[in-house]
Each structure stands twice: as C-alpha cells, then as structure tokens.
C-alpha cells in the first residue's frame, strides 16, 4: 500500500496534502491549522462572504489570512477562494491540491451557512441555498476527490491508495432542531453521503467519517452567548477542541475508522452507534391490513414516552467527565 513513509509520531501527516473547505474562519480554520501542525500541506478554501447566511460579496481575505498563518508557522499552505456548492469550482479546488502539492490525501468538508426559519415560514430560497452549500457542497468535493483516488489506484495496478474524508454533520440532525428544517435535513443527508462513500471507497484505501462538532464561532455566537468563556484556560466551546479529532481521522492511525459518526466538543469525543431496531411486528397474512397495524402500533406508541422521536436528544447532554 502506497502509504507515505515520512510520518512520525509528532507529525503523522507529514508528506500528505489536505483540502479544508470553509477554513477561513471558525472550525475550518482550527482544523486547517491542526492538519498543518501535524505535517500536512493544506489548501485553505473559503469564499469569504461576510454573512453567516452566505450573503455579501466574496473575499479572498479569510482564506489567504489562514494560509499565511500556516506559512508563518513554518507550514505549507495555499488559499483557494472558490464556492464549494459550485460543481466546477469544487473540481478546481481538488485540482489545486494536486497541482500545488502533487496529490490529494485528505478532504475535510466543513463549509456551511445558516438560514434558520420554522418550516411553515421558510422560503424556497432559504431551503435551496442551505441544501446547496452543505449537501451538494459535500458531494461536489467528494466526487472529485473520489475520482482522483480511484484513478490513482488504477494507475497503481489496483493497489490501495491513501485517502481520508472527514465530513461535518451536526447535533441539529442527531437531536432534531425545530427552527432549522433545511439545516437538519442537509446535515442528515451528509450522514447518508458519508456511509455511502465509506462503502464505495473502502476498496481503494479511502475512509469517510462524519463529525458532529460544537463550538463558539460566528455561526453559533448567539446560541452560545449565555455560556461564558472561563477567565483562564481554554473555552470549552473553543473550535480547538474539535480540530484534534479531525487530525486523527486524517492520519494513518485511523485506517480502521470508516463510516463512523462522532460527536466532538470540549475535550470529549462520543462515538454514536448506528440506529438499532426497537421493535418488529409481522403480518398474519402475506401483508398487513389497516386494522392489524392499528391493533399493533397504536398500543406500542401509547406506551412510549410522549415526544420521543427518532431524534437522539440525549446527545445534547454529553459533557467531558
Ligand atoms: N459551530 C458549531 O457549533 C457547529 C455545530 C455543528 C455543526 N457545525 C458545522 O461546522 C461547519 C463550520 O461552521 P462554523 O461554526 O465554523 O461556521 P463559520 O461561519 O464560522 O465558518 C464557516 C465558513 O465556511 C465558509 N463558507 C460558507 N459557505 C461556503 C461555500 N459555499 N464555499 C466556500 N466557503 C464557504 C464561510 O465563509 C465561513 O468562513 C459548518 O458545516 C457547520 O454547519 C458547526
């Protein structure tokens, strides 16, 4: 297997190249800095629009600042200011990693926007734009990175290559979020995309995992405004609590971690189990009748706690310790 030989315990990503989307601010910035600290050459992608809803003019500023920060610390980085929701620009993004650093090894899909509204008030544009940036954005880069890895594997006579995808979902999908139907749906879609990609690419030596992070960023500054930063030490809501897991998932050590969902924040990582079957009913004849379903399902749900749904609200209570 064509694994890089340069990796050391301190710099496990030495010799690898990574793309991080939406890395001009917030979580993506912390993740790009961490990947560079661990030795990776990084393409820092961000279209740099000023609004967290994706509004305003694009700006090269945020991506270039983070790329410069990495170079100032002795790392290798270039900025890319494309929009990941645009298929062509996503292709250029993946291509730029290959052109700049000779190959792509790690793809961190992180770019995202918010347009919150209750489902009865949400406009078509609020729905479409959030699905487009998160779900289509994740697909676009994944498509071109996957094609790159498949081609590399073919060129190596079918040998496994090195590839890591880290996608970004949210507790808004896991626990449900009444005011974010577009966002919760996009983040659920990203989980489906991750398990599909994990199955499809395993034979090429590529893993795909998904994180549900939590951090104080531009996106969540109002949600977490009530959670004070401590006077000393790291803020439990600092994006720097999320970045180490992304570094680990990108590294050779995580080869056996594939198709997994991990919740991460504040010095804690929780591995979420796949959905499990809670109950099963069989029809008496070949198929069910209405009456039969009524007789089986109505008492079943009558006994279950009110308000319990498929959403895993309990994840919201996870803390370190
Ligand atoms: N902050 C949290 O608590 C939290 C919780 C769960 C999930 N997330 C997810 O983490 C990711 C990062 O969020 P954040 O909190 O750091 O937000 P942020 O707003 O601080 O950063 C997101 C960055 O993505 C960039 N971006 C947006 N759309 C883009 C596009 N189409 N192309 C290129 N760049 C684009 C923005 O310019 C911005 O710099 C998002 O996917 C978000 O949904 C965050």
UniProtKB/TrEMBL annotation:
SUPFAM superfamilies tied to this protein: NAD(P)-binding Rossmann-fold domains (SSF51735)
Domain Ketoreductase residue range list: 16-242
InterPro entries: KR_dom, NAD(P)-bd_dom_sf, Peroxisomal_Beta-Oxidation, Sc_DH/Rdtase_CS, SDR_fam
Annotated GO MF terms: oxidoreductase activity
Gene3D superfamilies reported for this sequence: NAD(P)-binding Rossmann-like Domain
This protein's UniProt keywords: Oxidoreductase
Family to which this protein belongs: Belongs to the short-chain dehydrogenases/reductases (SDR) family.
Entry protein name: 3-oxoacyl-ACP reductase
Organism: Streptomyces filipinensis
């Amino acid at each position: 297997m064509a694994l890089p030989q340069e990796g050391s315990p301190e710099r496990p990503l030495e010799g690898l190249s990574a793309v991080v989307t939406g890395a001009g601010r917030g979580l993506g910035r912390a993740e790009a800095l961490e990947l560079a600290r661990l030795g990776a050459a990084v393409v820092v992608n961000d279209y740099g629009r000023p609004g967290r809803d994706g509004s305003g003019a694009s700006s090269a500023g945020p991506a270039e600042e983070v790329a410069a920060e990495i170079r100032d610390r002795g790392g290798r980085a270039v900025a890319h200011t494309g929009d990941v929701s645009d298929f062509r620009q996503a292709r250029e993004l993946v291509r730029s990693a290959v052109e700049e650093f000779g190959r792509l090894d790690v793809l961190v899909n992180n770019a995202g926007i918010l347009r919150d509204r209750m489902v009865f008030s949400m406009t078509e544009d609020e729905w479409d734009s959030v699905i487009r940036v998160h779900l289509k954005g994740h697909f676009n880069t994944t498509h071109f990175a996957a094609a790159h890895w498949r081609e590399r594997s073919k060129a190596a006579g079918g040998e496994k290559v090195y590839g890591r995808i880290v996608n970004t979902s949210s507790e808004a999908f896991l626990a449900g979020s009444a005011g974010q139907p577009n966002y919760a749906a996009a983040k659920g879609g990203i989980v489906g995309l991750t398990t599909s990609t994990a199955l499809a690419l395993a034979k090429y030596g590529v893993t795909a995992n998904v994180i549900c992070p939590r951090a104080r960023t531009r996106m969540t500054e109002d949600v977490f405004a009530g959670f004070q930063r401590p006077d000393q030490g790291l803020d439990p809501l600092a994006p720097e609590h999320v970045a180490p897991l992304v570094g680990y998932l990108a590294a050779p050590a995580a080869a056996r971690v594939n198709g997994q969902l991990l919740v991460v924040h504040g010095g804690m990582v929780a591995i979420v189990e796949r959905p499990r079957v809670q109950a099963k009913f069989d029809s008496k004849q070949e198929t069910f009748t209405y009456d039969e379903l009524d007789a089986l399902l109505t008492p079943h749900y009558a006994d279950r706690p009110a308000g319990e749904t498929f959403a895993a609200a309990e994840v919201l209570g996870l803390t370190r310790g």
